[in-house]
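Q: Got a minute? One more chain.
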Amino acid sequence: MRAVVMGGGVAGSASAIALARIGAEVTVYEAYEDPAGPVGSYVSLAVNGLRALDALGCLEPVQHAGFPVARQLMWSGRGKLLGDVARGRSSEDPWHSVALMRADLVTALRAGALRAGARIVTGERLAGTADPRAAGADLVVGADGIWSKARTELDPAAPQPRYAGIYHVSGTSDADRAGPGISRHGFNWIFARHGVFIYLPAPDGTLWWSAQVAAAQQPADPAAVSVEDLRKMFGSEPQAAAVLRAVTGVRSATVGWVLAPVTHRHNDRVVLIGDAAHPVGAGQGASMAMEDAIVLARELAAASSIAAGLAAFDRERQPRSGKLAKTETANRDAKTAGRAATRMRELIMPHVFDRFYEKATSWLYEYDPGRLPSGDERNRMARRAS
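A: Always. Here it is, folded:
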């Protein structure tokens, strides 16, 4: 089977590994030379994402490139602790969530794809699924993100991204300069007047932070959003203000997008994965893309034809991605809540969050995408392709 992958980010690189591991001849086309693409921020991988990395054979380099985060602390804007739970896992899970730079995650996955035998072409973008380089392929994987060209070609009436009412700015700060008033461990989530402010201490003494700003209108020039702007917006939240006073680096703002449910996600030879099919957010974009890659390869290896494998893949993945999309909507609403909702959260969360959070998220974090097919299964697929 000859497979062409549109996009060489997390989704594209993961699918290249998985497809190569079932015997496919894989070529990945990625428009950006830089592994990070246009986004140089960090990602936080929950344990479901780590299980996917383990199946792909990339867990160890990713863990080495990042650092574990055991706990998640939820704070009110006034500095009241609202909850303290295991980060991205059940409390009994021996694995801990891992934080690392997105570029390092993509680098590890691309290296894994090359080891598996895939070919990666950077600096080149496919014109579409009918591009001569893809037209002769048995399978085209649309892993080209939320602005997916493959999605539009599958369905000219497919939904288009729209502004989510939030934009993101991330950067680094010096923990010592931030002073003693900040939390020194865990993934710290602050419900602020103008959105959410997140920070986590790294082993090298820096603080990695992300300001998720709720705004009715997206910034006219994201690059013009300054640290001083953020200091004004988050100045009334003591921990956020302390982190922003100690800034050592800042990245340009990125706009948050949402997408209505995509109803045409595959045909007989083209399939969408990752953000091209279901931009889920909730800190799960990378993990869901890697899960997609494993399930796609597994279903293709088990099916009697590519078309049947794509249909089976879609049946398995859609309920999970749809449920997560609803969770992200609730998360986004919480980030943009008004003062009355904020006050209710301060009163209620300390009494219920720690007790119910783990049960409410077990379906997400305890998911296992399974292993990639064995040698016998790969041989069966090779015989079908010949």
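A: The chain has a mean pLDDT of 90.
Q: Perfect, thanks.
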